[in-house]
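Suppose a colleague, Dr. K., hands you the sequence of a protein chain of 151 amino acids and asks what its three-dimensional shape might be. Before reaching for any lab equipment, you can write down a predicted structure in token form. Begin with the sequence itself:
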Amino acid sequence: MKEQYITKEGLEGLKKKLDYLKKDKTREIAGLIKHTASFGDLKENAAYHDAKDKQAFLQGEIKELEDRISNAKVIEKNLSGKIDIGSTITLLLDGDEEKMEIVSPAQADSFNGKLSYESPLGKQVLNKSVNKEFEVDINGNKLKCKILKVE
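The predicted structure, expressed as tokens, is then:
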């Protein structure tokens, strides 16, 4: 897995999720396996097999998170006025004012204002500063953008 740039807050979030999965969720599924095993013959026990599938999926999710954490490179906020990972920006995007934070792909959540630095818009805004105007192509639509504020 290649190195992933991430904010300090994003890394803490991944660590909290990993801790939850390793402790609470693992314990929950172990209890489910124990409970369903008490139903009898394991060969024909669909609930038991479903619980074992959940356990395997959880182990895969834990491994993926561990890999992401071990390959994370924390980005400190850039104070130069130029947009970087971790910057919070306000844009005029095709006439609408939008506020968003530039984050790693793993943290991206457009509904909550978190824009991946690998997205078309994320790539366009990196290293730009306030009052910069440009066009961005998003799914075949050309949108006019102006950077209003960088935090």
